[in-house]
Amino acid sequence: MDCIKCNSSQVRVIDTRAKGTRRIYRRRVCMMCGFRWTTVELPVGDVRQAVDAVNGLEERRGKKHTAKR
Predict the structure, then answer these.
(1) Whether pTM exceeds 0.90
(2) How many angstroms from the chain centroid is the CA of residue 58?
(3) 1 located within any domain
(4) What single string gives the DSSP state of each residue in 17-31?
């Protein structure tokens, strides 16, 4: 994974936590710029359900964008 701020590939995981049995939260830090962010890992089926839910909401609101799978 690359830093979302400076695009450096020197990123380290500083904390990992499981939320239930299906989500893993990882706290990451860039070794170049010091920026910190959190990532969430989900099973593929959960990601597809989330994308479908977002697409359904946008269709009901009349928006033209769709989330990508």
Answers:
(1) no
(2) 20
(3) no
(4) EEETTTEEEEEEEET
pLDDT at position 68, please? 53
Q: Total structural domains in the chain?
A: 1
- What is the DSSP-derived secondary structure letter of residue 47? H
43 belongs to a structural domain: yes
How far apart CA 5 and CA 8 sit, in angstroms, is 8
CA–CA dist 1, 5 (Å, integer): 12
CA geometry: angle 8, 14, 18, nearest 5 deg: 120
> Are 31 and 10 a contacting pair, CB within 8 Å?
yes
